[in-house]
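job 3f2a | input accepted
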Amino acid sequence: MAAVAGSQPAIGGESQTKQNGSVDIQDLHTSAAKLSIAENATYDGSVSPAKTPFINPSSVSKLPTTPSLTTDQSTKYEKLLTTVKAWTTKPSTTPNPPDHPLTDSDRMWLTRECILRYLRATKWDVHQAGLRLQSTLTWRQEYGLENHTPEYISPENATGKQVLTGYDIAGRPCLYLNPGRQNTERSNKQVEHLVYMLERTIDLMPAGQENLSLIINFDKKLGGERLPLWQGKQVLNILQSHYPERLGRALVINIPWIVQPFFKLINPFIDPATREKLKFDQDLRLFVPPAQLLKTHGGDVDFVYEHEVYWPALNELAAKKRAVMVERWEAAGKKIGESEWYLRGGEGQDKGGFNFQES
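job 3f2a | predicted structure (359 res):
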């Protein structure tokens, strides 16, 4: 099965092959392929201006070392893993159907790291972590994540109000939010757009990185009507409920006076752990290597957003990386609790000392 450019490949397919002159990443996660890709290469090879996403982190970026689990944490993980492996359905929020069957996509999503993220988010409460995992499985089904196609989302990003490109100093993929480029009327589709871009950001994470960086740039075009409180609360709820432990850093710059009351209003809805990751009006070169930071944000990258170039490139790159993960998951036996380190191309032990080959 050849993956449609930009779609999330269905379980059971082959990786998409090179087309339209783009970098051949059929075997993207192999060591040889990584070495063959030039430093700070964009997907289509464009440089000045760059028009497509960077493929890999800069050599300046240093991936974090994951602390090894304690004996107690390992016991709790194994207990929850045993429970999750027994699941064949996920709850429904409506009586018809009473529940949904667990799909291969669900099983692949339930990685070792995913389960650990939910355990950390619930302070290692096994029961609560299980409930939250089920809640997210239901949300992913009923929110329709796999039905949000590139074509459906495309109009929302026509002006480049969100740009996914580059990696920060810890190897986190950077998602730029540019509210001043708002081009659509207020609707739930704007939230679907952000969720779609979060999913693509996760697709582009390198082995050994579970977090992302948000870079939010407010400009003079921004009006107060662009920041409805209901939308901010909804986005925060989705991030905290269904993407726990995913936000590594949120960098906010060029904050106009009209926006400051908005942050004060949503502050009570932000959990303390997330609040600590927010940085306001700081030098972004301290957090993102200049060679992968856009000039508009203080970096060296001359980037021009051309939707007809960027959008298909982003979706094709994400689809290819996703397809490789699917292929590796199937080759390893389609297990719940598989290692993301392995799925993303890691070999041997991960940075926390866990050896996926012995799992």
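job 3f2a | The mean pLDDT is 85.
job 3f2a | closed
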